[in-house]
Design a protein that fits this description.
The complex is a heterodimer of chains A (120) and B (108). With 120 residues, chain A is mostly beta strands. Helix content of chain A is 0%, strand content 47%. In chain A, the strands form 2 sheets. Chain A has a 6-stranded mixed β-sheet with strand order 2-10-9-4-5-6, with no helix packed on it. Chain B is built from no helices and 9 strands. In chain B, β7 and β8 form a beta hairpin. The chains are: A mainly beta (120), B mainly beta (108). At the A-B interface, β5 of A face β7 and β8 of B.
Chain lengths: 120, 108
C-alpha cells in the first residue's frame, strides 16, 4: 500500500526552528516528484515546496523561501522539511504529497498531516 | 501571481447536483485538478486533468474546464460527499502550484 506519514510537528515559539519528517512506503520517493503543502486554520491549501524526481531540484513558495529547506534521505525513503525563523503565520497542518514523473502532475496520495503551532 | 477563486460554500439536498466553480484568468488553457478533504483526513484527488477520474472515484464526480471557469460537478449527492473541495493548477510562469480558496459542500 502506498502511504505517507508525517511527524515532527508541535508547539514552537516565533523565531525558533522545527524539522518535519515524511516517511514513505509502498514506493520509492526518488521515482516521483514530492511536495509539502500546508493548510492554516480556516484557510485553503498552500503549496510550500517541491522536489523533482531523480535530479532532486527543489523550489519553494515565496512565503517560505530562505527560511525552509526541503531534503530527502533515499536510504530511509523519507522527506524532511527544516523550518527556521518560524512566524505565527506558519501555523498550519503540514502535509507531504506525492507528485508524478512530470513536475506539474497532480498530487496523490497525501499524508494525514502534522500540526505546527507557532505561538509565544 | 495566479489566483483561483472558489465560492466559500455550496449547499445541496441529497440526490441533487452540486456544482463547484473555480475561477481563474484563462483557466481553460490549464489542467485543473480537484481534491476532496473530509475533517481530519488527507486530501484525495477526485478529478485530474480537467475531466479524468482516478480509479475508485464514483462516476458521480465529473469535471469541465473552459474560458475562465473550471467546474466540479457532483451528481446524485450523498451525505458522504460532505467535505471541502479545492481546485489546483500548475502555474507555468512561476513553475509553482496554486490552489483555489476552497469550497465547503454541505448536504442538507
Amino acid at each position: 500500500e502506498v502511504q505517507l506519514v508525517e511527524s515532527g510537528g508541535g508547539l514552537v515559539q516565533p523565531g525558533r526552528s522545527l524539522r518535519l519528517s515524511c516517511a514513505a512506503s509502498g514506493f520509492t520517493i526518488d521515482d516521483y516528484a514530492m511536495h509539502w503543502v500546508r493548510q492554516a486554520p480556516g484557510k485553503g491549501l498552500e503549496w510550500v515546496s517541491g522536489m523533482s524526481r531523480k535530479s532532486g531540484s527543489i523550489d519553494y513558495a515565496d512565503s517560505v523561501k530562505g527560511r525552509f529547506t526541503m531534503s530527502r534521505d533515499k536510504a530511509k525513503n523519507s522527506l524532511f522539511l527544516e523550518m527556521n525563523n518560524l512566524r505565527i503565520e506558519d501555523t498550519a497542518s503540514y502535509h507531504c504529497a506525492r507528485g508524478g514523473s512530470n513536475w506539474h502532475h497532480y498530487f496523490d496520495p497525501w499524508g494525514q498531516g502534522t500540526q505546527v503551532i507557532v505561538s509565544s | 501571481s495566479y489566483v483561483l477563486t472558489q465560492p466559500p460554500s455550496v449547499s445541496v439536498a441529497p440526490g441533487q447536483t452540486a456544482r463547484i466553480t473555480c475561477g481563474g484568468n484563462n483557466i481553460g488553457s490549464r489542467s485543473v485538478h480537484w481534491y476532496q478533504q473530509k475533517p481530519g483526513q488527507a486530501p484525495v484527488v477526485v478529478v485530474y486533468d480537467d475531466t479524468d477520474r482516478p480509479s475508485g472515484i464514483p462516476e458521480r464526480f465529473s469535471g469541465s474546464n473552459s474560458g475562465n471557469t473550471a467546474t466540479l460537478t457532483i451528481s446524485r449527492v450523498e451525505a458522504g460527499d460532505e467535505a471541502d473541495y479545492s481546485c489546483q493548477v500548475w502555474d507555468s510562469s512561476s513553475d509553482h502550484f496554486v490552489f483555489g480558496t476552497g469550497t465547503k459542500v454541505t448536504v442538507l
